[in-house]
Amino acid sequence: LRSSAKQAAKDAAEAHHVLVDWTGTFEWDATVADLLKSRFGHDSFRPLQREVINATLSRRDTFAILPTGSGKSLLFQLPGLLSPSGLTVVVSPLVSLMVDQVASLSQRGVRCALLAADLTDRTQSTEVHHQIEDPATSGLRFLYVTPERIAKSKMLVSKLQKAYHGKMLLRFAIDEAHCACAQGHDFRPDYLSLGTLRTTFPEVPILALTATASESVRADVERSLQMDHLSARFRGHFDRPNIKYSVRKKLDEAALLDEMAALALRDFPSQAGIVYTLSRADAEKVADGLQRRGVRCAPYHAGVDALSRQSMQAAWQSGRMQIVVATIAFGMGIDKPDVRFVFHHSMSKSLEAYYQESGRAGRDGKPAEAIAWWSPSDFYRLASLACDTSDRAAAWRALVGSGRFCEMRHCCRRECLASLFGQSLPARVGAVSLGQCCDVCAAASAEAAAPSASIAHRSTLEEMDVSPLAIDALRCLAELNDAAAAEGVTDGGAAPAKLTALKLVEKLASRLRHADAKLSREALEHLVLRLVLADAIRVHFAFTAYSILTYLFTRPSLASAVLGDPGATAHSAGLHALACSLPSTLLPMAKAAKANKGGGKRKAAAASDVPPQSRKRVLP
Ligand code: ADP
Ligand code: MG
User: Fold this and answer.
1) I need a labelling partner for 284 at 20 to 30 A (CA). Which of 60, 103, 402, 583 fits?
2) Is pTM beyond 0.80 here?
3) Strand (E) positions, 146-288?
4) What does pLDDT average to in each consecutive run of 10 residues of the chain (620 residues)?
5) Which ligand 1 atom lies nearest to the CA of residue 43?
6) Structure letter (DSSP) for residue 464
7) Pfam families under this entry (predicted)?
8) Does the CB atom of residue 68 touch ligand 1 within 6 A?
9) Which of 37, 46, 76 to mutate to test the pocket of ligand 1 (most atoms within 8 A of CB)?
10) Is the CB of 277 within 6 Å of ligand 1?
């Protein structure tokens, strides 16, 4: 009974909370408006700034998820200056960003301090500690600090407690709060210890800020930071209407570099761009290749010394260098508004990471492009990396998201990215913007504009039903798995047979040759990958001394279905399940004819097992 009464009270409080109108009038409205102009020089608020400021000034724990560049620093800087004294503690993982902010606040006559391992020596720390314990006297308004300091320095925490007992601790601003999510791509273990802030300083509101957060990340971060259940939550619009997204076929390395260089030199002459690569070695190789083709660029990764990185970034910021060829080490904290293109030499490990990385284009709101090059073999390469992470299942799920994004041909890419954040796009205006948002929509509108044009002029895509082929691929894999197991070619462990995607495609190709079908090898690679993405084919990893190999095998239930007696109910049930689980996406197959028409009786029989409504339309 007591717990249900408690729950009722909680529900009532939540209900009340929902009713707070953060756009309404507050006692501090006039002062806030005045500060915005006088201290920060802005005429008006950007979306959600006013609401978030009202919530944190109301002493709510507040979570704000706003895109990069939307002005999150103001959300704690302005409230921190509202009262004549008092200290705001800002936690950030990025020392360079903190240095910038401290400099710009100091310039405006605001007293700030920074505590970071590599910047602050012992005497400086002692001096800062002194200022922290009595902000009323020292006039200290902002303390920027790394999460490591909060986690490891008992001295710092005890000084903060003194300020707290003097009622001089205004709020904790946790910047880049997604770093507290263990599943996220930027996880920092020290962020977890920030949870103790809530217990040590129960009266001090927390303001968590990030640009990356799906619902699950948000929930995870709120739990880690022990934010109050009454926390106010804000989520900005994540759509980037000025970025055109596209995915291109990855050709062989030389052709790919030719293509990239041509784009950089011809389509974006003298405009700034970033090329993201998967590894340091790739960054070196790609930078070298682009340089040879006359592009002003340099590789940027964690192996490059700090000084070179700094001068490289300066050259790029000033326009002396066109492209930074980087690993993801080049990321958080870049503040260049006029990046016109972001290329992905390899797709990111998750769609959230892709959104962030590609989102570094066009911060100034002017047209920009994000192009990712993609091939099925990249997927297996990324998979073997994902396999090396602490949470394999999460890494795998993230990667499947990336894979589906690249493979899909039926839905707007921007819509797909917006749905990551649980958002849908505002209704589009006119056909012009339709073709501008992504390659998928561009192809659709080109087709709509010229419906009578010959196939060659319309598009390189053609539709076909590949369900029978998909089933054949599974059957082929199941047979090969079986045969290998019979021969004892097993891995000893979980992998039933050492069959790589490459091998399967070869087998399929030779089978199809006999069946007189004209599907390209490339199309088959995509088909097999689709089956992996649909979870009809599982991937096993085998660790060797030098690399991690990926092997394919069928799901046992599907294997028995495709190998079983065609008349058995288990068979059609299995196939039905497969057909339903195949994504309703379209398969890109270059130059493939409408193959498989005379695919033989067995295939025809298999096809008829699939309920017509779940047969997928597939573009060759
Ligand atoms: P974020 O942390 O969300 O990436 P920042 O706090 O670094 O964004 O702000 C990005 C830029 O936006 C800064 O140059 C800042 O001065 C500017 N800015 C913030 N708020 C406003 C506003 N209300 N009007 C105009 N510019 C703003
Ligand atoms: Mg920021």
Assistant:
1) 402
2) no
3) 169-174, 206-210, 232-235, 243-249, 272-276
4) 58 59 93 95 93 95 89 96 96 90 93 84 87 95 95 93 97 94 81 92 95 80 85 87 92 95 96 96 97 97 90 93 92 82 96 91 92 94 82 86 89 85 61 66 77 48 72 82 64 56 85 70 88 85 74 71 50 47 36 33 34 33
5) 24
6) B
7) DEAD, Helicase_C
8) yes
9) 46
10) no
